[in-house]
TrEMBL record:
InterPro entries: ACT_dom, NO_sig/Golgi_transp_ligand-bd, V4R. SUPFAM superfamilies: Ligand-binding domain in the NO signalling and Golgi transport (SSF111126). Signal peptide: none annotated. PROSITE patterns: ACT (PS51671). It comes from the Archaea. This is ACT domain-containing protein. Residues 28-105 form the ACT domain.
Amino acid sequence: MGTENFEPYYMGRLVVVEGGNPFFFNVVLSREAVRALGIIEEVARVFREENVPILLFKASVPPSGVDGDVRIIVSADLKDEKQAERIAQKLRRIRYVSRVEYAKPIMPGVGVDAWSHPQMLHSDRALVLSEIYLKEILAFGWGGIGPGFAGLMYRVFFEAGRKIYDELYEKLVRTREDFIKLLEARARLLGWGVLEVVELTEDKAVFRVYDNIECMSLKGIEGAENALLRGLLAGILSGYWKTDGYHIKPAETKCIARGDPYCQLEYRKEKYEPLV
């Protein structure tokens, strides 16, 4: 599989334009707008009529069964606040729009989304953790604690993985193919890397993880190995296999931190004594 078919996704919500004036707009719509045709076109037309470039355009749509409004977040490089107010007035006249707000740049050339919190992935609240923080956490853990750090992280992420299975996978997955597709997609969307399910039976699983952010961060740390993602996947597998942490034996047979092109994580449904 690898990473060649994917492109970086820039989450945005912060725009930097040297010498520019990036305003942000929060366009709130009713749920009916999701199935209405032409809404995005109508929003974009307002900015085109003002002859201003759109710097960022995103939509936030709550999943089915979850309360909340549909929102379109737009950033544009404007002349001044008068133009922002004029644009807001036009946006308020669009079908299904219930509210429009705008935010001025927080400093010269810098604009931010002033309304969105918390960050959500489906129905889960999410924390965006920059790679620099992860590297420091792992370096301190492995350098100051050693292998005991790996045991602790494995157990923490195992328990989290099991809860995710019970609260999400159990509700959505109907077949083995469903499980594989959701597992691969969530690993990538959460930023772990590009996960490929190589083998999945009733008692064995083999995963490859390309561009694994955890092990990319472990390069140069002697003796370090995958612990977070290995535990997370074990926890999810425990739900799929209907077992517990004492009956899933993990192994990392290839690792980016050791110079391999990908990490390979293998699991067997058999007795295991975790460190923690």
